[in-house]
Amino acid sequence: MFQNVQTAPPDSILGLNEAFRNDPNPEKINLSVGVFKDANGVTPVLDCVKEAERRLVSDEKTKSYLPIDGRPEYCRLVRELMLGADHEINAASRGVTVQTPGGTGALRVAADFLAKNLPGRRVWISQPTWPNHPSIFAAAGIETVGYPYFDKASNGLAFGEMMEALEKVPSGDVVLLHGCCHNPSGIDPTPEQWKEIAELIHRRDLLPLVDFAYQGFGDGLCEDAAGLAALAQPGQELLVCSSFSKNFGLYNERVGALTAVAGDSAAATAVLSQLKNAIRANYSNPPTHGGAVVETILSDATLKSQWEGELTAMRDRINGMRTLLVETMKKVGVDRDFSFIANQKGMFSFSGLNPVQVDELRSKFAIYIVGSGRINVAGISETNVEKLCNAIKAVL
Ligand code: LMR
Questions:
Q1: What whole-number distance in Å separates Cα of residue 1 and Cα of residue 124?
Q2: What pTM did the predictor assign?
Q3: Residue with the nearest Cα to atom 1 of ligand 1?
Q4: What is the pLDDT along the chain (396 residues), one digit of tens a residue?
Q5: For residue 339, what are the domain limits?
Q6: Ligand 1 centre from 59 Cα, in Å?
Q7: What PROSITE patterns does its record include (predicted)?
Q8: CATH number for the domain harbouring residue 385
Q9: Are residues 147 and 280 both part of a single domain?
Q10: Rounded to an integer, what distance in angstroms lies between the CA atom of residue 130 and that of residue 128?
Q11: What is the CATH number of the domain that holds 85?
C-alpha cells in the first residue's frame, strides 16, 4: 500500500533547520526558524525557568493525567497575563482557557472547534502570514482566504487596503490577526489602528482569532496586548491562541493555550465543553511540564519579576541587532535602504530579498533565511553581522 505514497516537500521553516544542521560549512548562519539566540548564538534556558524546574522536580508527587483542559491555575494565569486580573472578561467569567501543546496546538483546537461548531465559516488570513496557518485550517477542513497586509512600496502596513478588504468579509467569518510582532513581516498596527480594526470587526460581526505568540517581544508585555485590549470589549467574542515558546524560551516543551471569550458565562461554559471534546479526540490531554513551569513563574512574585527582566533583555538584544544590521548594511556599502528594519517589531523582518537571492545566500554563503525573504533578527550577532551584510550586498 505504501508504495504509492508521494514524498511531501520539506516544511518551509523547520525543513530549513534540518538543511542547516546538515550543512558542513563552519561559517554557516541560521536566520530561519524563529528562536531567540544570545550573543553567542545559543538559545538559552531562562534562569527563572531553571529555578521553577528545580522546584517542580523536588515537589512533584504524581505523573497522573491532567484534566482534558490542562492545569486550572495555569489557565487562569494565562488569561491574567493577557489582559490583567481585573479585566471585564475575567470579572464576568466569560473567558475560558485550555492548555495546549504550543501555539500550534491552540490553533488546531480552535480550527477543530470552528469546523464543528461554526461550520461553513472561512478564516481570513493576512498576506503574508506564518506558512503553517493555512495548513492548520486546511487540516481541519476550513477554507482560508487572504487579506492584504504588507505594503511592499513602503515596507509598512497596507492599512487602507486591509480595512477595505475586511469591510467585504461576510459577517460570521473568522479574521485571524497577529496579536503583536507580525510573523513574517515584523509590522504591527498602531494602537489607534487596532481600535479601528476592532470597531470594524465588531460592527461587521466578524469573529477575531488572535495568534499571540510573541507577547513581550515588541514593546513590552502590556503594550503588546494593545490589539487584544481593543478587541476584548464588553460582550464581544474572541479566540486567542497563546504560545510560551518564545517569551519563556520553552520551545521544546510545547506550551500554549487557547482562550475563548464568549458573550456571557453560560455561553463560555458551553464553548469549554466543546473545546474539551475537540482535545479529547486529538491528543486527549496536554503534557504537564511546560505549563507547570509557566504557572510556577507567574504565581511567584520574585520569579515573575525575574522573568520580566529576562524577557526585556531578549527584546533589547533583538532591537540592538536591528539597529546594528541597518548600520552595518550602510557600512559595507549596501546600495539599498534597509532602515525600515529598525522600526519593525519582534523576531522577524521582511528583507525584501527575492527567492533567487535567498537561494544564493544559502548556496554561496551558507546563510539560511526563509524563502519569503523573512529574516530571524534574533539570529544576528556582532560576530556574524558583517558576513551577513556582505553576502546580502553580493546577492543584490
Ligand atoms: C517560526 O515561524 O519560525 C516559528 O514560529 C517556528 C515554527 O514553528 O514555524
A1: 37
A2: 0.97
A3: 34
A4: 999 999 999 899 999 999 999 999 999 999 999 999 999 999 999 999 999 999 999 999 999 999 999 999 999 999 999 999 999 999 999 999 999 999 999 999 999 999 999 999 999 999 999 999 999 999 999 999 999 999 999 999 999 999 999 999 999 999 999 999 999 999 999 999 999 999 999 999 999 999 999 999 999 999 999 999 999 999 999 999 999 999 999 999 999 999 999 999 999 999 999 999 999 999 999 999 999 999 999 999 999 999 999 999 999 999 999 999 999 999 999 989 999 999 999 999 999 899 999 999 999 999 999 999 999 999 999 999 999 999 999 999
A5: 10-44+316-395
A6: 33
A7: AA_TRANSFER_CLASS_1 (PS00105)
A8: 3.90.1150.10
A9: yes
A10: 7
A11: 3.40.640.10
Q: Hey, what's the cell of 200?
A: 470594524
Dist. CA 58 → ligand 1 center (Å) = 32
Grid cell listed for 333: 556599502
Can you read off the three cell numbers belonging to residue 284?
Answer: 486527549
Residue 59 domain-assigned? no
Looking at 250, 268, 299, which one is the last position of a domain? 299
Kindly state whether residues 170 and 295 are assigned to the same domain: yes
CB 181 near ligand 1, within 6 Å? no
Active-site residue set:
130, 211, 246
Q: Are residues 175 and 123 in the same domain?
A: yes
What's the residue count for the chain? 396
Quote the ligand 1 centre to 14 CA distance (angstroms): 7
Ligand 1 atom 5, closest CA: 34
238 domain-assigned: yes
Query: Could you tell me if the CB of 34 is within 6 A of ligand 1?
Result: yes
Check if 183 has its Cβ closer than 6 Å to any atom of ligand 1. yes
CB contact set of 127 (below 8 Å; sequence gap of 6+): 146, 147, 148, 149, 150
The number of the ligand 1 atom at minimal distance from the alpha carbon of 245 is 5
Could you give the 3-state DSSP secondary structure of residue 295?
A: helix
How far is ligand 1, taken at its centre, from the CA of residue 13, in Å? 7
Domain boundary among 299, 327, 353: 299
Residue 35 CA to ligand 1 center (angstroms) comes to 8
Which of ligand 1's atoms lies nearest the C-alpha of 376? 3
Query: DSSP letter string over 111-125?
Result: HHHHHHHSTT--EEE
Q: Is 350 in the pocket of ligand 1 (CB under 6 A)?
A: no
